[in-house]
Amino acid sequence: MGYQLWIQVLTVHKHEDWEQIFERSPSVLELRCLDNAFTSETPKKILVQFKCLRALYIDAHGDIIRRESGQFAYRDLFKALPASLLRLEIAHAHGPDLRVIQTVRAHCPDLAVLRLGRCSMFNRIPPCAFWQEYPLDHDAYIAAIGTDDFAHSVAQELVSMHNLKALRIGVYFMHSNAVLAHRAYHVRGVPAPDGVDWQQALSVVENIPVPQPPARLDQNLLVKFYHQDAEPDFGPDSCAFCYESFEPSRGAEARANRIIKRLLPGLQIMEWMDWFSPSHRGVSQHAIGDLVPVPNVPP
To answer: Taking Cα atoms as reference points, which of 49, 55, 44, 50 lies closest to residue 85?
Structure first.
């Protein structure tokens, strides 16, 4: 009995672990796949061999490769999932959520919980090679523009998932320059100027006089500025400037929830990333079981 219980949950630390785990696959109910579990040698359909799998956690930080040109490209860690899966959590991904959603939709009709998380400036300290290369692309998961359309597109992709009860999307509904505003200005007790850019903000941080136009600053300074383990005690009452300027994002979340509820009426819990949380790594959870959906959302 003890042995049987032990093999209900297994962790895959590296690619070489798969061979041993296969021997126990009929009874494995939950797998935790860490960063090095999927390599170029790992079969893309390896997970379908776990016929009894109910829960799956994947650290997807390895979903990018550097080509000979030096540029990064996305890669699929898996292309199929067992139909038995009820709960899936993806963490630290760089690639678009759409790839995962399409795979889930094709293979997991009974999925009840889907959590999609991104590699971000808040959870990757020090920065990984991807963010060292693309420090200006954090608006991929931090944005306040087009949130209604984004919510509709997500829900449209999941509309056939009738058993889905809980959904987490790893994005922050706030202005893309919010981190600049807070760390360069708010912490100094002053509001940020409208439309602040990174060179302007770093000039304040580094105490560099700003000529007109501002001198070109090294983007490595921006990487260091973004990827710092700051404010582990941050919360709703930590910054009055943030609270005032971020209030519209609460409305964006509420409207997005109603848009999603319209297309996914069975959804009970919706989660977004929450700026007002320790180290900005928490989630904003909404119980939407009785929520009145937004009517007539345009395609």
So the answer is: 55
